[in-house]
Each structure stands twice: as structure tokens, then as C-alpha cells.
Amino acid sequence: MDDAEPPRHEPEENRPPQRVPAFNVPPVILASLGLLIVVFVIQNLPWWSDDTLNWLYFTFSFIPARYAFPLSQQGLEWLWTPVTYSLLHGSIEHIVFNGLWLMVFAAPVARRIGVARYVIFWVLSAAASAFLHAAVYWGDQSLLIGASGVVSGLMGAACRFAFPAMDGRRFAIRQAHLNPRLSIAASLRSRTVVAYIVMWIAGNALVAFGITIVGDSAQPVAWDAHIGGFLFGFLLFSLFDRQPRIEVENPAPPAE
User: Fold this and answer.
1) 236: nearest Cα among 197, 184, 179
2) pTM here?
3) How do residues 200-221 score in pLDDT, each as one tens digit?
């Protein structure tokens, strides 16, 4: 019988350094991006006729005019389009812009609330964005497409926990999901959050007046849908938070 050889322990300095992934994006976010890309490719298949494309957009885009007529006198598109519109995009610039912001703001939210709540958040924030848009443009026959409302909802949710040093702690960006959740009042007392919200509102105000700083300026931007999504995420995030925490009412001011 061979003698058992004790395990060898390499000195710490001789161990190879652990690899740090270049892109630390949760799988559910990669799946979201993959779905958006697949849908965009399907939208732009070269053999679609104009009639097919018209059917595609009519069937899956959000149209405010649908809700100005009795639902019993039309098809069931009113049932799913408040969500499916968020999967459609009108151009490469449109999907790239939304995809980049999705990776930035969805990652900490997804890490914190988990896959199931993330999917529910997507569905409900898309609907909230769509119906505020419908309220502003009641009876309008224009099409609403794009994930911008959902991205805005994720931005609003991130304001409740993801910004650094909200309560005196300084988690690394990849650990932002570990921050305590701020109450709505405490969020509005945080200079970091307020500064971000002011800049976000200013950007949307410029969009409302037809001035687009970034993104696809060739297409109209539904600034009202952005506001609907942001308010949903900011005001209702606590309903999705899977790690109930004592909400921070008075965050410590950052060190000077």
C-alpha cells in the first residue's frame, strides 16, 4: 500500500492570481441583451415585406389609441403590447444606447432582487412607462417601442441603494447591491441622489424640447415614458427588494 503523501501548500506569493472577469454582468442581464438583439435581428430580416413589417409593429408596439376604444371591439393586442413594445427597437443606435445603459443600471438591481423579481420588474415598469405615455398622448396613433422606459425604471430603483457613500459606507461598484436601502425621504436628502435626479430630469426636459444629447436623434424620444418608468422604479423599489433591510432615514454625510 502506497504511503499517502500530505497535500502540498504553495506559498501565497507563488500562487497564480485569480482571474477577474472583464465584464461582471449577471447572466439575467446578458439574457436580456441577447433577447433584445434576437428581436432586433428578426425585425430587420431582409426578406420581410412591408405588409409583414406593418403587422409586426402593429401587433407588438404600444399604441395609445388602442385604449381610447372599447377593448371588446378589437383584438387582444392591448393585452401584451404594454410589455412587448419594450423588446422592439428602431435602429442600431437605439438598441446600442439602451443596451449600454441596461448593463450599467440593471446589473446592481438584478444582483439585489434576483431573476424572478427582475423579470416582474421589467414587465411592470414597461407597463407603467407605456400607460403614462398613453395618458399624455391619449388616443394618439403613434407607435411606442424601445426599452428606455424599463432602463429608466432601473435607474430609479438604483437611486434607492446603488450610489456610493449614501450612508457613510464605500462599497466597490461591483458590490453596490449590498448597500442599505434608503427610504424615499432619505434618498431625496442625499446630495448624490438629488444631483443625479436633477441631471436626469434636465436631460429629459431637453428631449421634450427636441434636443437630444446622446442616443438616436433621428427618431422622436418618448420622454414621458422615461418619467413613468423612473417614478415606478424610484417609488416602488421596496416592493421588489428581496433582502428586506431597515431603511436608512438619515444617511451620514460624506467626509469632506
Assistant:
1) 184
2) 0.80
3) 888 777 765 555 544 444 455 6
